Amino acid sequence: MKLDHAGSCSCGAVNFRVVADSLASYRCYCSICQKATGSEFSTTVLADEADFKWTAGQESVREYRKDSGYMLAFCGVCSSPVPNQFRGMPFYSVPAGAIEGAPQIDLRVTLFKPEADVSEAGNVEVTNFDEVPSLNVMFDLLGVTAP
Ligand SMILES: [Zn+2]
Ligand SMILES: [Zn+2]
Questions:
Q1: What is the whole-number distance in angstroms between the Cα of residue 58 and the centre of ligand 2?
Q2: Ligand 2: distance of its center to the CA of 143 in Å?
Q3: Among residues 18, 27, 10, which one has the least CA distance to residue 75?
Q4: pTM as predicted
Q5: Which pLDDT tens digit goes with each residue over 37-83?
Q6: C-beta atoms surrounding 17 within 10 Å
Q7: What is the pLDDT of residue 95?
Q8: Ligand 2: centre distance to CA 52 (Å)
Q9: What helix, strand, coil percent values describe the chain, rounded to 5?
Q10: Domain range 3-115, CATH class
Q11: Distance from the CA of 140 to the center of ligand 2, in angstroms?
Q12: How far is the centre of ligand 2, averaged over its atoms, from the C-alpha of 135 (Å)?
């Protein structure tokens, strides 16, 4: 069954929909993705062109291209990564984090994954919070001393 997923950038200017059976995705750990996202990896859903539709704000989309063919699309207002056409093919690269409502992301592929995935650091204890903890609790867990 196809599910209808809404997506947007952080400021809400750019909006899109993906209507698909599943959100098949890949994680890329390359240095460009690390710099572009400010994180250890990017997570991208590859959507069929037929399953993807801009619903608002396409005129706010800006693009950055590297000579290698790498292309990053982002909102010109808030700089959030937004979908872009995958290398001129009938697919859209959709940043997983731009899709609303924490959908089920179906991870299929990882690229350039380092030996030890720092995001899954197995030898470090990770504490999860479902609500924002107090700053002092955060500082304590991050090993810094509150001012
Ligand atoms: Zn925006
Ligand atoms: Zn990459």
A1: 23
A2: 30
A3: 10
A4: 0.84
A5: 999 999 999 999 999 999 999 999 999 998 888 889 999 999 999 99
A6: 18
A7: 96
A8: 22
A9: 20, 40, 45
A10: mainly beta
A11: 33
A12: 33
CA of 35 to the centre of ligand 2 (A): 9
Structure tokens, 69:
């063919």
Q: Are 63 and 73 in contact (CB under 8 A)?
A: yes
Position 86 confidence tier, pLDDT thresholds 50, 70, 90? confident
More confidently predicted of 53 and 87? 53
**99 CA distance to ligand 2 middle (Å):** 19
- Tokens 């959507």 correspond to 47
Query: Which ligand lies nearest to the CA atom of residue 57 in the structure?
Result: 1
Q: Can you list the alpha helix ranges (DSSP code H) found in the chain?
A: 31-37, 135-142
The two structure tokens encoding residue 134 = 């107090």
Residues with CB under 5 A from ligand 2 (ion): 28, 30, 33
Tokens standing for 41?
């990896």
What backbone phi and psi angles, to 5 degrees, belong to 59? -70, -15
